[in-house]
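Ticket #4471: structure output looks truncated?

Reporter: J.K.
Steps to reproduce: submitted the chain below (418 residues) through the standard prediction queue, then opened the result file.
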Amino acid sequence: MPPWPAPGVQHTEMSSNRFAGTPAAHWPDEAVTRGVRAAITDQLGTQALATLSIDVRHGVTLLAGTTSTLLAKQAAAEAAKSVRGVRSVVDEVEVRPATSPDPTIADDVRRTWADLPCAEADRLKVDVHNGIVALRGVVDSPQQERSLARAATGVRGVVAVHDEILVRPPPTRPDAEILQDVRSRLHWALPLDASAIAVQVSGGKVTLNGRVATPADYDRAEYLAQVTGVRSIDASKLMVDPGAFPSEPRAPGAALASDDALAQAVRDAMFYDPRLDSYDVTVSVDHGIATLSGHVPSLLAARAAREDALGTVGITKTVDRISIPAPGVASDALLARRIRDAFARDALGGLTNVGVKVNRGVVQLFGPVAGQLAHTRALEVAASVQGVQALRDDITVAEEQAGPSTEPKRQSRGSPRR
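Returned output as attached by the reporter:
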């Protein structure tokens, strides 16, 4: 382990007013360290630990070292935040990507935006200097702003993203309506246990008070509080206190609520999901089983609707009847080429080793990747390409990055994923 703090980090703040309880009340640092190493390995593969250092003191976790992509840096921090016993994450990881010309990065950001549901994207300004991307312009909602910034983060060669996108002033809403929406989103969202979070609203300002189990729960509570009409969020009184919660996150379990209430909770989750912006998905619930129907322009949107439903407390299963436009005149070969192009401009260079086969719009992805992040990313990137009707996932997660994939076996592991 490196000295504390890491060499070259002279002004790292190792304390926070978000901590609750005493250090003795939390997990042993050795156990937390093992948990963080396992979480990062699961996301990035064992090779990531060769360039990252992890040090834990009283639950405060310092990440140092280097990664080759901004996506990997963020994934490492998010993995650490999700570990029980972590009270805060200090991220001093440096991004050292493969060199890519600034104009190429700017072009790739715009090409990635082309598949996003944001009408304002073509009016936004993208400036790149030494791999640092600055985004400027105006959009309608915080959800659109987050979606655009996240897409830029995933572009090959990006070192950092300076998000200067402005959100148009939200419509004026009564504080009572905002309060109801925030409480509802916190209540229905998995895996967050919001039982110890109090919410106050005054003049459109939301104040969160209470306790959460992990830094990841803290971030999620802030995200969920951003509902229509909110002008600012103050979460400074929300404490990270692992000892105040059971050792496991809240179970999905059947909620003591009517099917109508569950259906409305799913609709609310989809309303704030930028991947579904302005799309029409109908939701009905029968004894905890959510049926989704309607029309969306991409498989990514259809998958997002299903994730939102399954991320709602009380929903035990989904029935997917969502339709996606047929690829039209686009051939399977053209669709495969578009997916490979998307993989090539993605920050995770390992995606270029993922095999792609297309048969009547059904895409089969195969071959080994290093870590769950690459696996998830491959599915997400392919699903965002217009014309993809379904995904057949034959990707394997290997401990070490392998070479280019070979042809998949004839026998598939399952039916296409929606």
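Triage note (M.O.): checked the attachment and the full token line is present. The chain has five domains: 23-95, 102-167, 175-244, 259-323, 332-398.
Status: closed, working as intended.
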